[in-house]
Batch of 2 targets.
Target 1
Amino acid sequence: MFSTKEQLEKKTGPYGIGRLSYLQSLVTEFQDTSSQDAVEETDEKLVEFAIGGICNLCLDKENKEYILKNGGVTLAIKCLSSSNEETVLSAITTLMYLMTPASKSEISCTPVIECMIRFSKSSNKRLSNLAHVFLQDYCTKTQVEEAEKIHQQLINAT
């Protein structure tokens, strides 16, 4: 979970490189390396870990505000179309954590609700259950009904 700089320093003690310095070194190496062997992750895996990290970070009020101010909702919504199950689950959870009165209209917009309706009908129970929670807790009955009509039109058109 989320740790402050002070917590990280307390865990590592007065000797050694320290956890914070070590993590900063890894990030710097990852960003600066030209070797794909040093990175060892596909773009899909990188996205999975990134949205998972954002999901964990947005529980902190200060991080949540930063994520909201810097396009985090749009990025999380884009992750809903991933073929990676963990990425989609983290994206849905992130959107729920980022819900505020100011971000509600952006997060509970018709395309996202229609997407949640699709997910709610999935045979994947983790995905289906999480989508049901989103629809029940973050959407009005009217919003869901309107998105359901669009969903049915899309099904009938194919």
Target 2
Amino acid sequence: MINIVLPVDFGDKTEQLVEGAIKFAKQLGAKINLIHVAPMEIGFAIGDMGYQYFPEIEENEIREELVLLNKINQRILSQDVDCEHLLKQGVAKDIILEYADDKNADYIVMGSHGRSGIYDVFVGSLTKGITRDSKIPVLVLPIHE
């Protein structure tokens, strides 16, 4: 079976990305391996006492993200595309590439918002990093307003 890794961030363009991945998976008869990578610093806040860690904030955020991930997983399954999902915390690029390797993925499907230049200098681009470092093909879907 052909395996597709689909990283999602729950941003406003996730819907478009998921639809494109479903279409691609149907064309190939592929399985989607859905992944969301939560940042390590979810439970940290800065206040009068400096950085503080609030495990309850992290737990609530992870729980909410898992609910969102489950909804996307169910939506993909409802389109007659086999799907499984994983939520992990850490450095997104590294975890996505490791997951693709673990799943023997044939493709990684990512979205591109069309940002470049100064944005990439300060924020970086996950899609750009995955495309540069991946050993397997990366399908980049244009995600527009």
